[in-house]
Amino acid sequence: MDELGTLGELPPDYLDALRRANLVPLWPSLRSLLPPDAPRTTTAPTHWPWAAIRPLLLRAGSLTPIEKAERRVLVLANPGRGLENLQASSVIYLGMQLVLPGETAPNHRHTPNAARIVVEGRGACTIVGGERCAMEHGDLVLTPSGLWHEHRHEGEGPFIWLDVLDLPLMVMLDVSYVIQGERQAIRRDPAVYGAGGVLPRVHGRATTARYPLLRYEWSRTREALVALGATTPRDTPVEVAYVNALSRGPGNIWRRDCPGNGGAGQSSLRFHSSRSSNGSKTRSVPVAVVTLTRPPQARPGLAVADAKQWLGFPIAADLKSNSESSQLKEERDDAFNSFPISGILIGELFAH
To answer: What string of DSSP letters covers 43-74?
Structure first.
């Protein structure tokens, strides 16, 4: 491909005239805007160790009260995109959020879609549109675009979860904003989903809720993974997708008219859970992969090394604990009263 002209080849008086007229020549920048043959990304494969995140997050709890933070979050910023941009990838925001006993992260609503993946603690809940969503280890809790939500910690000890938002996408589209609200009263639509495959009705009518299911319990997800694994060869990893039962298309937990969905049933964020085995050891991952909208023929990778062969934007949460014996790991996996994490891994790589 031929080289194109540069700004340095243009006379200074011509460049000054262009600037005065708010004009810019395209050809010096064309190759960066439209790279030949394959897309480019500045997102760097990055690992955020949990051993580094947790003490710094707990220290934030002693340094900054919730009234001064509103959301006490340490953002997982990708160095390739610039730490000041608060991006994990081009379109995904990740943050570890801490709420201490007795605190409430105040009620608000915003345009970005958000989801919470519980990492540590007991006794907290998220109120979404008046519905109280308990938060247990491994649960996925949605706070979709435009819905009021607040977080309350009514238990003991620190409570920590991973925030996943399509915030960079909304910022790029110039549609990102928030509205503050009063503390919510608890209410619940009488016909909301409690189990997959069963459509709840009251007096013959289905739910009118925009989102019939806001909390995806890890205990039920794990049961589905175990059942699926029982019918699959031992060393074959299995995966399930979190879905909105009223949406069209597999793997879509959001409404079709949700910002970022493009009106085509594609979600801006998709969530999956996986289970894998290697010989006598089995590992279940509550939310292993978060992907941005991807073509139906593409599949997400589970790690940066694997992601090179897929078209997509993978994130993998590695739940291995290097500090525990193999026997204890298996016992924890079987009971799953809590799960240890070593950190968050992200990659944004395209197939060539």
So the answer is: PPPEEEEHHHHHHHHHHHHHHS-HHHHSS-EE
Spatial strand order of the sheet with 46-49 comes to 46-49, 343-346, 315-318, 281-291, 270-278, 238-241
Q: Quick check: 66 pLDDT over 60?
A: yes
Cα distance between residue 294 and residue 291, in whole Å: 7
pLDDT in tens, 132-180: 999 998 899 999 999 999 999 999 999 999 999 989 989 998 999 999 9
The tokens describing 62, both together, are 């002693």
Longest CA–CA span in the chain (Å) reads 77
**What is the residue whose two structure tokens read 């990893």?**
237
Which distant-in-sequence residues (6+ apart) come within 8 Å of 58 by Cβ?
A: 98, 158
Structural tokens at position 37: 């043959």
How many C-beta atoms lie closer than 10 Å to residue 324's C-beta? Answer: 13
Q: How far apart are CA 193 and CA 11, in angstroms?
A: 67
Closest CA to 142 of 201, 193, 198: 193
* Beta-bridge mates of residue 277: 282
Distance CA 302, CA 276 (A): 11
pTM of the model: 0.78
Q: Judge contact between 350 and 314, C-beta under 8 A.
A: no
> Nearest to residue 163, comparing CAs of 256, 269, 58, 80?
269
Partnered with residue 332 across adjacent β-strands are: none
Do the beta carbons of residue 75 and residue 48 sit within 8 Å?
Answer: no
Return the SS3 of 199.
coil
The reply to whether CATH 2.60.120.10 applies to domain 46-193+211-346 is yes
Please tell me the number of Cα atoms within 13 Å of 94 on its side-chain side: 26
List, in sequence order, the alpha helices (H) in 123-217.
Answer: 167-172
Residue 278 CB neighbour total at 10 angstroms: 10
Contact predicate 241/266, CB 8 Å: no
Cβ count within 10 A of residue 40 = 10
pLDDT band at 281 (very low <50, low <70, confident <90, very high): low
